[in-house]
Amino acid sequence: MSSLLEVSHLKVLFHTQQGDVPAVDDVSFQVEEGETLCIVGESGCGKSATVQAVMKLVPTPPGEYAGGKILLEGRDLLPLSTKEMIPIRGHEMSMIFQEPMTSLNPVKTIGSQVGEVLEIHRRDLSAREIRAQVEEKLSLVGIPDPARCAASYPHQLSGGMRQRAMIAMALACEPKILIADEPTTALDVTIQAQILDLIRQLKEKTGMTVLLITHDLGVVAEMAQRVLVMYSGKVVEQGEVGALFRAPLHPYTEGLLACLPRVDQDEEELYTIPGQVSNPADFPKGCRFHPRCPYRQQICKEISPELREADGRLVACHFLPGERVRREEGAL
Ligand code: SF4
Ligand code: MG
């Protein structure tokens, strides 16, 4: 069976004054119909750029699609023009963003914005049918008074309600894949939980496929079957969520997991991965994680590790857990 979405060896460059930035560097993954796949990593690791690339939303220039394929049900989206992408966005794949306030138009009512999506994609519907569908979508995402919400402007709604409205907009044309880029980051914890719950319920109800971007492994544990860990524009580990949580194969995944708060731990003891994400215009040679890796050896500074299979997962590290030696502070 072929995957619903298959991204292979995708490469996106940004031409900047500091040089070419490989924001997405040889990224491959598949999304199977009906599953939730999470992409996780710190900010600046290329996860947003990856999904923007999948939606063909990378501005070119300064961006450039420098190679690879994005196959949606076997059809490569990469060569398609902006015009050819219109029926695909919204209808086949749709996206929700981190901050709904920046994605919603402040001078249009919620109803007219959700309606617009339908007008573009469903020319068979009359104005009355569109209004009815708008209210149906708003109620599907748990908005208590859909008619009132439809008549409201974005600033009249709370953050959680705005995010629900964004989801209604994304779902207006019943896309096969919903791409959610950190959909709860700007919301407070209770609302975050409600929105994640909503995405889960909608998935159960509609059978849609979800590609979820997050920096939060707690969200991954709750939402996904499979996870892709990215670092500095590359995939460093990929596999089934349970296995990856039980025994991470990549030192970066191990570091991310160690950062998760645990019930038996004081807050002061919370671990943080030392150092910072490298400047994408100046990635280190060899393994891009080496300046922060507690296991780095000389080879790591020279040769970039390829993704390889181990324990039914994919990992890009020269060493597997049993082969690693933790470096003394200050060594190498
Ligand atoms: Fe660490 Fe080396 Fe593995 Fe990179 S290749 S993650 S530096 S051990
Ligand atoms: Mg981002």
TrEMBL record:
Residue ranges of domain ABC transporter in the record: 8-257
Entry GO CC: plasma membrane
Subcellular location(s) of the protein: Cell membrane
GO molecular function per UniProt: ATP binding; ATP hydrolysis activity
Record-linked PANTHER family: DIPEPTIDE TRANSPORT ATP-BINDING PROTEIN DPPD (PTHR43297:SF2), OLIGOPEPTIDE TRANSPORT ATP-BINDING PROTEIN APPD (PTHR43297)
Source domain of life: Bacteria
Keyword Zinc-finger: no
InterPro entries linked: AAA+_ATPase (IPR003593), ABC_Ni/Peptide_Import (IPR050388), ABC_transporter-like_ATP-bd (IPR003439), ABC_transporter-like_CS (IPR017871), Oligopep_ABC_C (IPR013563), P-loop_NTPase (IPR027417)
Biological processes annotated in GO: peptide transport
Name this protein carries in UniProt: ABC transporter ATP-binding protein
Organism whose genome encodes this protein: Anaerotruncus massiliensis (ex Liu et al. 2021)
Main location: membrane
Cross-referenced SUPFAM superfamilies: P-loop containing nucleoside triphosphate hydrolases
Membrane topology, from the record: Peripheral membrane protein
Family per similarity comment: Belongs to the ABC transporter superfamily.
Keywords: ATP-binding, Cell membrane, Membrane, Nucleotide-binding, Transport
Signal peptide (UniProt feature, chain positions): none
